[in-house]
Design goal:
By secondary structure, the chain is mainly alpha-helical. It folds into two domains: 81 residues, Rna Polymerase Sigma Factor, Chain: A; 70 residues, Orthogonal Bundle (Arc Repressor Mutant, subunit A), CATH 1.10.10. Helices cover 65% and strands 0% of the residues. Helix 1 runs antiparallel to helix 2 and helix 5 packs across helix 7. The longest helix is centred in the N-terminal third of the chain and has 26 residues. It is globular and about 55 Å long.
């Protein structure tokens, strides 16, 4: 293993402390399980730490780690041993959250849980992380057309399962001009 410079260790530690929650959210949406999401983030960060001295443009580090998360999750799903069922109840993550917000989050997750992992990932990256179709395609390792198709199918399934306004950004309704 390469000798680590103190600056590299400090920079990596800063990256981990500042971006761990965002990386965890992505992992959770991709994998659908809290413990597996923690494992996925941990594995991605280990891979990033090993590659850290080779990373030339540190501004692209988060994209690199996100890509590791998505590709590692895909490889986990392909394993024959990956047969854990999804979590029945999403536990509360923050203290002091109001019950209405938690109920809405649980309702949204109940609808999202029925989607395949690639569709959940595409929706999360496009709408929660506000990435472009090209950025989402790069992270998912597919074409822009595939991202568009995954999002289209996912939103259609959500609309079918939760009414005509499901999948639309909050405050927008079908047929209502803003």
């Amino acid at each position: 293993m390469a000798i680590r410079r103190q600056e590299d260790v400090a920079a990596f530690s800063e990256f981990v402390s500042s971006r761990s929650q965002a990386l965890y959210r992505l992992a959770y949406v991709v994998i659908g399980d809290h413990q597996l999401a923690q494992d996925l983030v941990q594995e991605a960060l280990v891979k990033a730490y090993v590659a850290w001295p080779r990373l030339r443009d540190r501004t692209k580090t988060e994209g690199y780690v996100r890509r590791i998360i998505v590709t590692t999750a895909i490889s986990w799903r392909r394993r024959r041993s990956f047969h854990e069922p999804p979590v029945e109840h999403v536990p509360e993550t923050g203290a002091g959250d109001d019950p209405e917000s938690l109920a809405a989050d649980e309702a949204v997750w109940a609808h999202l849980r029925v989607l395949p992992a690639r569709q959940r990932t595409a929706l999360f990256l496009r709408y929660h992380e506000d990435l472009s179709e090209a950025q989402t395609a790069e992270l998912m390792g597919c074409s822009v057309g595939t991202v568009k198709r995954q999002v289209f199918i996912a939103l259609s399934k959500l609309r079918d399962g939760a009414g005509p306004n499901a999948g639309l950004p909050l405050g927008e309704e079908k047929g209502v001009a803003r």
